[in-house]
Amino acid sequence: MTATVAHPEHVRPRRSWLPTTLTQYLLWLGGLVVVVGPIVPVVWASLWSTPLYEAGGSLTLANYGDLFTDAEWWDAVRNSVTFAVLTTTGAVVLGTGMAVLFTRTDLPARRLFGGAVLLPVAVPGLPLILGWAAIYAPSGYVTRWLEENTPVPIFWDLYSVPGMAMLAVGIAAPVVYLLVRGSLTTQDAALEQAARTAGATPLRALVSVTVPLLRPALLNSGLIVFALALEVLGLPLILGSSRDIDFISTFLYDRWLNTSPPEQGLVSAGAVVLLAVVTVLLVLRDRMTGDAARFQTVGGKATGAASIELGPLRWPLFGLVGVYLTAILVLPLVGLLLTAFTTTLTPFVDPWTVLSTDHFRTIVEDEVFSRSIRNSLLVSVIGAALATAAIAALSVVAHRSSFRHRGSLQYVLLYPRAMPGLVSGMAFFWAFVVLDPSGRARASLWAVGLAFAVRSLALGYSAFYPALAALGEDLDRAARTAGADWWTSMRTIVLRLLRPAMAVSFVLLFVAMLNDYDPAVFLVTPGTEVMGLTMLKLWVAGTAGPVAALGVIQVVITFTVLGVGRALFGVSPRV
Known about the structure:
Structural class: mainly alpha
Largest sheet: none
CATH superfamily of the largest domain: MetI-like
Number of helices: 27
CATH architecture of the largest domain: Orthogonal Bundle
Number of domains: 2
Helix content: 55-70%
């Protein structure tokens, strides 16, 4: 008696119930709807004579007329541009200098410094600003101590545009450092060595040969920093409000939330203008970096870079870098901790005599604080999981299909990161007003989570793109040859191989959504508070201690998740 054996060719792969083209079109349309769709109501609101939730109204340009004839708007524009120029200049100079020092010289502990300089990218922005204020404000601990005990002149004033730019440089310089370091490590050092052979000193060869080749990285990082500086909200709201210094972001914030009745049409017009400027900067960045082939130096075989000996400057530069990192990171974090764990932080009172956990007790007992933590964790966990699944599906359409519009998906995934947070929040506010006039959807935590998730799409995509580029197409082609349709081969092979990238994406999205707050300005209602916006509002209202305690909790959660992610999946801070 012989057994019947089923031959492999008789076994057909299970096919998905949706046709491939329809699946790809649905994913593409879904991406366009959630990213580009909410922008339409903002433009509509800027061109409508009444708020969209009111009956009647007509097309008008009056909102733009009111905006462009408002003297306070132009004051805010001037302050924002000045701040952005100062921040960009300082960040490019500082970030480039550190990249050269840490990659091309024999500076002691340069690897340790290279990791430490990236920490401001990982530290939540608001707690770091609160720490700076506790240490370097006119009444801050270090400022007052220096005034009372040393002849050192105080040359900074955090409550001014240059002072805020000084703080922002410390946060933005790591962005420049990352991009310039990447350019330096991929350059062929043969040209630099040729200059040295011709008689140039190591420093002359570096300045005359290597630095000019960094132009694409400098332009790229400079435009990124400039665009980010134009849309910053927390910094001017915390430090500028006491002196009535308005930026574009705070001008829009105040005209929406602190003006009666709210000037929503004018604010929408301002948001459209800001979005247009940032979009132009993004296009300009792509055009400038698109000609980067002129600066390529690596051919088939690259020459390793020679380390430049600093000589007698070696240890003074080591000390200078150590002082810089202490000033921009260590002392602000210490200031945040002292504010959180003392009843009063002042240089005239020994902090060890006023240690207290009362602020943390307030966090536990106050429903707004505790609810903010719960809501932020819910939004981060659920939002990061759902966004990771969506990004995975969109990424395989963009990079693993023959879909005719696949190229546009890459821009759809990257664009939300360029969209200012305030504009993103306003876009979803008006979208929910149009789609659900009852307001129930807009008043839910799901609305906040959706805005946060869309704004963070580019971070998740940054985990999938290199993983897909490194993954050969042989396996999914084999599945297609065996009879599987596109979606089945993606689901059963490619997405399974992308599980490490999914884990990295989840960690990055979790941290980003935990620390985000700009979009929540227009969406949060009583009961849907999140940590960042709660800290921002209560600090402006003068509640320092509990806000610092909440900031400490946010920092601890962030570093814990990043630490676990780095240990398991190699997660690191990204631009």
